[in-house]
Amino acid sequence: MNEERKGFVGNSQFDITNTVNLLRCEEISHSFDYPLFSNVSLSLNQKESIAILGISGSGKSSLLHILSTLLVPNHGKVYIDGKNIYELNENKLLSLRRNDVGVIFQSHYLFNGFSAYENIELSSVLTGKKIDNELLGILNIDNVLNKKVTELSGGQQQRVSIARVLVKKPKIIFADEPTGNLDRKSAEDVIDAIFRYIYEQNSALFLVTHDEELAKKCDSVYRLREGKLEKEK
Ligand SMILES: Nc1ncnc2c1ncn2[C@@H]1O[C@H](COP(=O)(O)OP(=O)(O)OP(=O)(O)O)[C@@H](O)[C@H]1O
Ligand SMILES: [Mg+2]
């Protein structure tokens, strides 16, 4: 538990009192053909947001995958909601991935044969959570729900994939360039919808972005540079 302090999310100030830690990693190192990064440690509490900046190839997506149950690191520990995730058995890890972790991928993976609504509905059925119609309005996709995915613009597809993740009501949102295909206004709307979500649902946001302005809206900003994670805010 943290002592009482002020938090700042999405331009609205509010109290974070007795917040709970949702994500923690300790001394993560990872290599593919060459070392990507080492000694990465960070911590994310309820209602908090972290942004990760870094040049292309610095390892941002890989770090996001490690923290979101998708990639076992060469070294280090990841805790979600107090659980050491890579020590869980397969069923528990799958359950955590399905129910508690919401990943907005850099390339979204919608089902092309289905409509926008059916894509969102699928995630609601899988997790037994109700679809929040207000959210669909905020994301500005309520008018394209019956269109096939292939009939949507890139930005609309991106917003449908974000809706699909948020309807699961995950404890932590991992968003990899969620606004990459969007104009400035749509990007702001989308990020505000995500901030609203993490505040209302006591969730948290781990955001990977190239957009320095967007990053500044988060409580903390880090940069992956030359294999190290440096804190900038
Ligand atoms: N599964 C993999 N196997 C081997 N190498 C990989 C794998 N995934 C990523 N890499 C390599 O790791 C490096 C970092 O990739 P990563 O996708 O994490 O970068 P990034 O910071 O997200 O880049 P971008 O900003 O372009 O999305 C790259 O050189 C990439 O080729
Ligand atoms: Mg990436």
Low-confidence stretches: 1-16
Average of pLDDT: 91
Hetero groups bound? adenosine-5'-triphosphate, magnesium ion
Shape: globular
In CATH, the topology is named Rossmann fold
Task: Let me know the number of strands.
Answer: 12
Over all CA atoms, what is the radius of gyration?
17 Å
Order of helices and strands: EEEEEHEEHEHHHEHEHEE
Secondary-structure-derived class: alpha/beta
CATH H level: which superfamily? P-loop containing nucleotide triphosphate hydrolases
Count of discrete alpha- or pi-helical segments spanning 4 or more residues: 7
Question: What number of domains?
Answer: 1
Report on the architecture of this protein:
The protein has 233 residues and is α/β, with parallel strands linked by helices. It has one domain (5-231): Rossmann fold, CATH 3.40.50. It is 30% helix and 30% strand. The chain has seven helices and twelve strands. A six-stranded mixed beta sheet has the order 8-9-10-5-11-12, sandwiched between helices. Strands 4-3-6-7 form a four-stranded antiparallel beta sheet, covered by helices on one side. Strands 1-2 form a two-stranded antiparallel sheet. The structure holds adenosine-5'-triphosphate (ATP) and magnesium ion. Residues 60-61, 106, 176 line the site of magnesium ion.
